[in-house]
């Protein structure tokens, strides 16, 4: 039961609202995290090898759900679940031609993920370059470390 401490301050005060908002990927209280949530969705979608295989196929051109499902060793409903994850992340587009659903690759959705990886690649490259320069400096020999503890050999006195 909810405490009557004043007006609601977040969607967590109303569980039904929270479920509704999260179902559609929304939460007005955590609006500043929308960008991060999209990035999480993209990386989560890319984490699965089946979804990466689907994206690789769609990078070659549009395909129907049946054409995507044929080479995969899983049921049609399982493929549909993978497609929904990719669609929610914005990595694929879907349009209908009558009863046929055509899917296409949306590489633009990965731009944010590429920017994130590029930023951290630069950061770690700079860090490793600084470490290499530090280790290459002459005259600063590493101090000798004392030998580790000697292992005692126990004799078996049977």
Q: Summarize this, please?
A:
The protein has 6 helices and 3 strands, in the order αααβααββα.
Describe the fold and architecture.
This protein has a 3-stranded antiparallel β-sheet with strand order 1-3-2. Helix 2 (34-46) runs antiparallel to helix 5. The protein has a domain at 11-108: Arc Repressor Mutant, subunit A, CATH 1.10.10. Mean pLDDT is 77; it is low at 1-12 and 30-34. By secondary structure, it is mostly helical. It has helices at 15-23, 34-46, 49-59, 65-69, 76-88, 111-136; strands at residues 63-64, 92-97, 100-105.
Rg result: 27 Å
Low-confidence stretches are 1-12, 30-34
**What do the pLDDT scores average to?**
77
**Strand percentage:** 5-15%
> What does the main sheet amount to?
3 strands, antiparallel
Order of helices and strands: HHHEHHEEH
CATH topology of the domain at 11-108: Arc Repressor Mutant, subunit A
CATH architecture of the domain at 11-108: Orthogonal Bundle
What order do the strands of the largest sheet run in, or round the barrel if closed? 1-3-2
- Span of the ends, CA to CA: 70 Å
CATH superfamily of the domain at 11-108: Winged helix-like DNA-binding domain superfamily/Winged helix DNA-binding domain
Structural class: mainly alpha
- Which geometry do the CA atoms define? elongated
Helical content class: 40-55%
Supply the CATH class of the domain at 11-108. Answer: Mainly Alpha
| Annotation, overall tally of beta strands | 3
* Count of runs of 4 or more consecutive helical residues: 6
